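Hi all, long-time lurker, first post. I run a small reading group and we've been trying to get comfortable going from sequence to structure in the token notation. Rather than ask abstract questions, I figured I'd post a concrete chain and ask someone more experienced to write out its structure so we can walk through it together at our next meeting. Sequence below, copied exactly:
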Amino acid sequence: MDLLFQPLTLGALTLPNRILMAPLTRCRAEADHVPGDLMAEYYAQRASAGLIIAEATMAMEGNSAFWKEPGIYSEAQIAGWRKTTDAVHAAGGRIFLQIWHGGRACHPLLNNGRQPVAPSPIAITDDEVRTPQGKQPYTVPRELHDEEIPGIVAGFQQAAKNAQAAGFDGVEVHGANGYLLDEFLRDGSNQRTGAYGGIIANRARFMLEVIDAVCTVWGSDRVGLRISPLNSYNSMIDSDPIGVCTWLATKLNEFNLAYLHVMRSDFAQQQQGDVLTPIREYYQGTLIGNMGYSPEEANAAIAAGKVDAIAFGSLFIANPDLPERIQHNAAFNPPNPATFYTPGPEGYTDYPTLASAALAEPV
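-- Answer (accepted) --
Happy to help. Here is the structure in token form:
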């Protein structure tokens, strides 16, 4: 596992290892989407990651898709996130914030009756959304008007400023998993015409405008982007995912980002293909792979030059000391999916570390 523990220059940062924590929605925010002490404890427990990428966080008010996800648009949220960044930094870690707009995955019951927006009026049909009234079908979104887009770009820019005020080390723009920017990028959800529809250059325009705006706040060397070209989650599909990857990877070279974070496959295994190879061929920056890697495969992928680092998801949920466990070839705690989105510390901050397990053993 030697390569996983080699330092990595990632934009303005130098990471002590290449074992990154992927952004993971956990629905533990307090009232008004404010991060609290429990979230600070959770992230600080995982500070040995080369980089923590914090969970999807609402860039602007009124776009909730998970009921109890955090935001970064109010002073209370900025102060709440400061608890997390202070705790992570005190533990020696580094942390980016993933800024996000839920698009058509938002629901009126979570947003005071507000209809969600999307590139086209096409609803998510493959799942239901959790609300205070139980699981509900997704609603048909309203088509976003071209003249509304600059306001959302400005919202992302303000979110980037707020993330700075909260003490983060950088931000990741969420362009994956069927949320607003991804909805514009892929032709299964974007069936509009005009400046933001049709050819890939137009469909990617919104995402690139957001990246450009965020980079004016942080500098590009503290900005990352996450994409999921094959993931069908949230009823997503594209007719040419390889073509999208190739075009986007080439275009992103103009930005000199800290990294490009790629979800390599499909949760539901509906869409198949190899997107990492063409991205690696055309993208000149730091490439992070994600989805289903074992530590052994991660080390081999870095050795083969396929990626520069790996972001682990469920392994980090259940193993706050994941780098130490990998380094010592220790057994992993199994994650409990039943507690992924439930309130409180169970399945969140109560997974044992190697050190705590040793202390609990009888003498």
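A couple of things your group might point at:
The first helix runs from residue 37 to 45.
The two ends are 32 Å apart (CA to CA).
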